[in-house]
Design goal:
Number of helices of chain B: 5
Structural class of chain B: alpha+beta
Low-confidence stretches of chain B: none
Helix content of chain B: 40-55%
Largest interface: A-B, 20 and 24 residues
Structural class of chain A: alpha+beta
Oligomer: heterodimer
Low-confidence stretches of chain A: none
Largest sheet of chain A: 6 strands, mixed
Helix content of chain A: 55-70%
């Protein structure tokens, strides 16, 4: 990138700058005309100049030029107008000029704004483009948040400046020079004085402002570091809590803020000091005019008219001068910021843009070349060798196990093959071509990689899987006319700002790369790879636990509802009929709480949620009929008594409190006091608040769990009756507050599994939940719903960096992504370290089977976490101390009784 | 069955004989009532031990896995406690327990069970007595088995 911002702006916006300058110059004509016109109006029609006699006329719009050689040229002889029409004619012209000036201003400002925004877009893109081409070791020192703040905030002022970069100095300089020249013409002495003061202003002020620039730079750096620190705190929050270091962080942040404050306050102090001096210098000039000019005038060396003219001309000088100095300040400020950013992004060894050129070819992968490692040397940050003079040849179709203790070179080789680290010497070649010179379009598709540290972008499981297959926009979507216009605009505008015009809405998925003809086979492919890494069950469970908007999956709702009956039949067939107690509109569900039995639905908003329901007038009116409120009060009273009897003398952290679902340990004293105040549990004498508090307890009661024996048949019937009344006369304003349980309808507020169960799992069986889930899974399979449910699981959002998955799930998903595409080589670098050895072994075997399915024979390079897994490979390469010590078929190595055999024994 | 009846039943379990009825009620409340049908497994050998069971009704076989399949080593019935070893040793289940007929049991979570022992020395002593009894039975059986082996 260009070293100076002015040069950068000039390079990228030269024609536009010249155009806007030309427009500004043209706009000067109506501007000065408009300045002159008021004088004409006042002197002419208003005070009557030229209209002294009755009926006198003056020419209007007479255009006469006197040119050399040609004499007088009359373009327009003018209209003869009387005083009154002349007033209106001139005023009309004035209005016209005002409009023309305004329009010029509008056009110029819009033009400059657009120019600036395009330039800003160009800079930002160029910076991100550079990040994409940084060599890998750069990222060991970069903090994401600092880079982000550079791209986002620090370049922002450059856009605003670019419109003024050339126009402003020309304009203001011109104005200042004109005024100065005029003063010189009136009096050389006064001209010299003015020029001298201007010169002083122009030397002192920028010099004083230099300190401001230094401070500005410091402010930029400290602010950037602050954002880096804040993001570190966010990322490291677990460590901070675990080690009780939150106050170290507080101290650090407070100190940083103190430094920033000091710098900013210094800036203010200097800024206003400079302002003061600047103002003083501009005000001191008139003082000299009055004193020196007056002296000269009194001595008769200057006539008074000239002096007045000079003072008048000087009036126009400070404005432009001040603006010019401000502009210069702004320029330097932007220049500093620009230099700061550019030096950060000027990294040695930037990837050649040709290596990342957009390539659509789907069969780029079909190289069938051996991997040749020649004299390879890899070193870490400190320069310590991780691999030294390594020579190795891996043939297409070979399955090679790399073994060795951690840090002895196997991992480094795997990383070097996929360019995660760059060789310090020697080379890795695909056939004859050094992989460092091959485009990523070739290496990225010919070689699939999965390491132990998985990275996921925020999005769904599906998005992150399919990410492996997105290399180029392959199929342009069909667009409606309106969308096409918008797309055309995007494309044209991107090119104007030096951005690429790749269509992000196109289908980028290279189905061919996954061995597919089109989108249809994709789901099956996902299932296959996820099954291989044993993540398919997890995906199904995620789906069953997710709340699904049925409008997004047409037909799903009715199928799920149909599944309810099928599940009952299935359970009955397995002799487990009583495992689920279904919700039936006319019956009390003994496994559900009293509250749930009353509401018989899911509260959709805050109005009918547990905490507020007691204060809802309609609900209260329903409950108070037939003495139900009294019954519930009596029930709650008894629950409170029993709870206090059982728990009153236990310490609050006693594990038994886990079973007390309707109260916390802190509630016990409150209820103790409440029971004492209540007159032997009399409903009549209790006040509103007390009633609520007691009745609330009854709502959480589940007979089979709490076993207090408080539910009589009569009470159950009463509750069911109240439920029916509640729903029958539900006022319209509450219709959206609750979704009633309906055996024939899908509930969009419950998750998929609850929708299938549509009831409560009985507590009687200790493993009831697992049995039911197993039955549901079998049912989905037999009802051909697996694919659709699986698809819902694929839509599970991973959260930032995939943190909504467990570490083990993340590793599995990462491996699955590595398996997805058909490549010549698969490089796996201890991809499953977090798993049990037994599971690792199973998955490894299944991976090999999957990769060799359909007669494919890719090269597989697997860095093993455990040397005993090497039995599945054709060839074993053993690393020790950064070098290759043994290489050959496993049996041959075992016969040697060398390092490998020792490792196996260990 | 209700809490009050469970307390009545718990009082008849020798393990809890010395415990105050109020505390038994608390124990009943904080533990879970589970029922098993004939052939259902209370827990499998090798599973992590997360709870002990007090058999309230019915009986169950205690089985251990060997190379020849599961071997029945003992039988438990009403008022017996099973599954406490894995809790005490903080390990996995040493045997599989399978219901012989319909079994009603009280499932006492690990944390609750340990708390119970530290709060009531009577229970600890009773647990020790049960364990010692089992040990002596095992020793006798072992002696018998060894002498049988010698004879052959």
């Amino acid at each position: 990138m260009e070293p100076s911002i002015s040069k950068y702006i000039w390079t990228h916006t030269r024609p536009q700058q010249i155009w806007v300058l030309a427009v500004v110059l043209v706009s000067m004509i109506p501007f000065f005309l408009a300045l002159d016109l008021p004088k004409q109006i006042v002197n002419g029609p208003i005070t009557g100049g030229g209209f002294e006699t009755e009926g006198a006329t003056q020419p209007f719009m007479r255009l006469v030029f006197s040119l050399p050689w040609l004499g007088e040229v009359t373009l327009f002889p003018g209209l003869d107008l009387e005083r009154m029409p002349m007033l209106f004619a001139l005023s009309g012209v004035f209005l016209g000029l005002v409009i023309v000036n305004g329009l010029f201003k509008l056009y110029i400002n819009t033009y400059k704004g657009r120019l600036g925004e395009r330039l800003l877009r160009r800079i930002r893109f160029e910076l991100v483009d550079r990040i994409l081409r940084f060599p890998p070791e750069t990222f060991k020192r970069l903090k994401g948040a600092e880079v982000a703040s550079m791209v986002k905030d620090e370049v922002e002022p450059m856009g605003g400046f670019s419109g003024d970069a050339f126009v402003t100095p020309v304009m203001l300089g011109g104005q200042a020079l004109t005024a100065l020249t005029f003063i010189f013409l009136q009096s050389v002495w006064l001209g010299l004085i003015t020029a001298a003061l201007v010169a002083i202003q122009f030397t002192i002020i920028p010099r004083m402002r230099r300190r401001l620039l230094v401070l500005g730079r410091a402010r930029q750096l400290t602010a950037r570091e602050l954002s880096g620190r804040v993001s570190e705190i966010v990322d490291g929050i677990g460590t901070i809590h675990a080690y009780d270091t939150s106050n170290v962080e507080r101290a650090d942040v407070a100190t940083r803020l103190g430094t920033i404050f000091k710098i900013r306050f210094d800036i203010y102090q200097w800024k206003f000091l400079v302002k003061f001096i600047n103002n003083f210098l501009s005000q001191v000039t008139p003082f000299l005019f009055y004193s020196v000019g007056g002296y000269l005038a009194l001595n008769g060396r200057l006539d008074i008219g000239q002096l007045v003219a000079v003072i008048g001309a000087y009036k126009d000088l400070p404005g432009p001068l001040k603006d010019l100095i401000d502009w210069d300040q702004n320029r330097q400020d932007v220049q500093v910021k620009y230099t700061q950013v550019v030096t950060q992004f000027a990294v040695d060894g930037l990837l050649d843009p040709d290596l990342q050129v957009l390539t659509a070819m789907s069969d780029a992968a079909a190289t069938q070349q051996p991997l040749n490692v020649v004299n390879l040397r890899v070193a870490d940050e400190s320069g310590a060798a991780q691999l030294e003079r390594l020579n190795l040849r891996i043939h297409p179709g070979e399955a090679v196990a790399l073994v060795g203790e951690a840090g002895h070179g196997a991992e480094a080789l795997a990383e070097a093959i996929v360019r995660l680290v760059w060789p310090k010497g020697g080379r890795i070649a695909l056939g004859d071509a050094d992989i460092m010179t091959l485009p990523e379009a070739v290496t990225g598709r010919a070689i699939s990689y999965a390491g132990g540290d998985a990275w996921f972008f925020s999005g769904s499981v599906r998005d992150n899987l399919v990410y492996r297959l997105k290399h180029a926009p392959l199929r342009v979507p069909e667009r409606a006319a309106e969308a096409q216009t918008r797309r055309d605009w995007y494309q044209a505008e991107a090119l104007k700002a030096g951005n690429p015009d790749f269509d992000v809405e196109s289908d980028w998925i290279d189905y061919g790369a996954a061995g597919l003809d089109g989108p249809d086979g994709l789901l099956a492919r996902f299932q296959a790879v996820l099954k291989t890494v044993q993540l398919d069950r997890d995906i199904m469970d995620l789906a069953l636990r997710s709340t699904v908007d049925p409008t997004q999956y047409p037909g799903l709702a009715s199928d799920i509802v149909a599944l309810r009956r099928a599940l009952r039949d299935e359970l009955a067939a397995r002799g487990l009929r009583d495992l689920i107690v279904p919700f039936t509109p006319g019956a009390y569900n003994i496994e559900a709480t009293v509250g749930e039995n009353l509401l018989f639905g899911t509260a959709m908003g805050p109005v009918l949620q547990n905490a507020n329901i007691g204060s809802n007038a309609y609900f209260r009116s329903v409950v108070s009929r037939d003495g139900l409120a009294e019954d519930l009060f009596a029930m709650g009273y008894e629950i409170a008594q029993l709870a206090i009897e059982l728990f009153a003398d236990l310490p609050p952290d006693h594990p038994f409190f886990q079973q007390l679902t309707f109260m916390t340990a802190d509630d016990i004293p409150t209820y103790q006091a409440l029971l004492q105040r209540l007159n032997a549990g009399s409903f009549a004498t209790a006040n509103e608040e007390q009633r609520n508090q007691i009745i609330r307890l009854s709502f959480a009661y589940v007979e089979p769990r709490h076993r207090f024996g408080l539910l009589t048949d009569a009470l159950r019937a009463k509750i069911v009756a109240a439920r029916q009344q509640f729903h029958e006369f539900l006022p319209p304003e509450l219709h959206d507050a609750i979704e009633q349980y309906d055996p024939e309808r899908y509930s969009s507020s419950a998750n998929l599994l609850d929708n299938v169960l549509f009831g409560r799992i009985s507590l009687k069986h200790s493993d009831g939940a697992e049995r039911v889930q197993a039955a549901v899974r079998d049912l989905l399979l037999s009802q051909n719903l697996t694919d659709r449910v699986f698809s819902i699981g694929l839509d599970f959002q991973l959260g930032t960096q995939g943190k909504r998955l467990t570490p083990v799930q993340r590793q599995k998903l990462n491996l699955a992504r590595g398996l997805l595409a058909h490549s010549d080589y698969y490089v796996f670098n201890k991809p499953l370290q977090g798993l049990d050895a037994r599971i690792q072994d199973q998955i490894l075997r299944d991976c090999l089977v999957l990769l060799r399915a359909e007669g494919r024979q890719p090269g597989i390079i697997w860095v093993l976490a455990n040397p005993s897994q090497s039995e599945h490979f054709d060839r074993v390469v053993v690393f020790k101390d950064g070098g290759l010590v043994e290489d050959g078929p496993r049996d041959a190595l075992l016969a040697q009784d060398g390092v490998f055999k020792q490792m196996l024994r260990a | 069955m209700l809490l009050k009846e469970e307390v009545q039943m718990l009082r008849q379990v020798p393990l809890f004989a010395g415990v105050d009825p109020g505390k038994l009620k608390l124990l009943a409340f904080t533990s879970q009532r589970v029922s098993f049908r004939e052939g259902d497994v209370l827990f499998h050998q090798g599973d992590p031990g997360d709870a002990a069971y007090v058999i309230l009704a019915g009986s169950a076989d205690i089985l251990t896995g060997s190379d020849n399949g599961l071997i029945k080593v003992a039988e438990v019935s009403r008022n017996a406690i099973v599954g406490e070893i894995a809790i005490l040793c903080d390990g996995t289940r040493t045997a599989t327990v399978r219901a012989q007929n319909s079994v009603e049991a009280l499932r006492i979570g690990k944390e609750q069970f340990l708390k119970l022992m530290s709060d009531f020395p009577e229970i600890t002593i009773e647990v020790m007595r049960v364990l010692a009894e089992r040990l002596s039975t095992t020793t006798t059986e072992l002696t018998l088995a060894r002498s049988k082996l010698k004879l052959h």
